[in-house]
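Q: Joint fold for the lines below.
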Amino acid sequence: MQQNNTVIISDDQNSSLAKKISMDLDVEYKKTELRVFADGESKIRLDNVSNKNCIIIHSTHPPTDQHLMQLFMIVYKCKQDGASDICVVSPYLAYTRQDKVFVDGEIISINLIGEILESLGTTKLITIDTHNPNTLNYSFPTIDLTAIPFLAKYIKKNIKLNDPIVVSPDQGGIERAKKFAEIIQANMLSLIKTRDRFTGNISISFSDQQSLEKRDALIVDDMISTGTSIIKATEVLKENNIGDMYVISSHALLLDDAKEKLRNAGIKEIISTNSIPNEFAKIDLSNVISNYFLKQ
Ligand code: R5P
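A: Joint structure:
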């Protein structure tokens, strides 16, 4: 990495993470000026970045489409200025769950995001624990970094557990939960989640033989959005006389009253990263991201 030619760019929301990364890498930091008008349109100002290697730090959490549009505007400005490289770091990338045609006629929106980023001049995309990294099949390189080892080490160091069991709320999250279980040296189990593709309703079942009696559960998921998946998982675990329950999630969106609902469902603690601003962030992703660039 050419330090004197590299610049880290972010808006105010992502500035705490972006500033730490710029200090770790010892490169310049530029904050965009952002104004959101009453009708929801954004206006962005960024100093000239001609001939610079631009690293844009920008999560796309709710308001999702607004944050995405702001990302597109920043990439567009970098390209217009004649940046030599445009790397987008989106710790939380939206639309990753729209990765298949589940019902005839649907759009694979995550492919659309890739096409827009490519057309704007993006040369690389970096995400953290994205829903399914295999679906980011873009024409430019995509790299999915992980916070799972850091989350697991945090639990190991800070929380006293009784015969813990790591739980994946669905089969898509098995690899993530497995990695987590290996680090804390615990068993894992995967619940089975099914979703009605028309109503969106989910149901979760459990067919494992191992006893959960009084064991503490660490439910590991990529993201908590409405909290419904985790709440459904707690119902199954409680039927099996589980002990304390914790949620470990890279991306804590926690929409509406998800936090209260999780608490009422018996979740003792939520442990997350700072991919998006949230009160449960125990893991700072700046190390994960900076280490990647320092190794280049
Ligand atoms: C889906 O498969 C994801 O891994 C998450 O489990 C899900 O998106 C979380 O959303 P919610 O909190 O709304 O259930």
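Q: Anything notable?
A: The chain has two domains: 3-146+285-294, 148-274. The longest strand covers residues 217-224.
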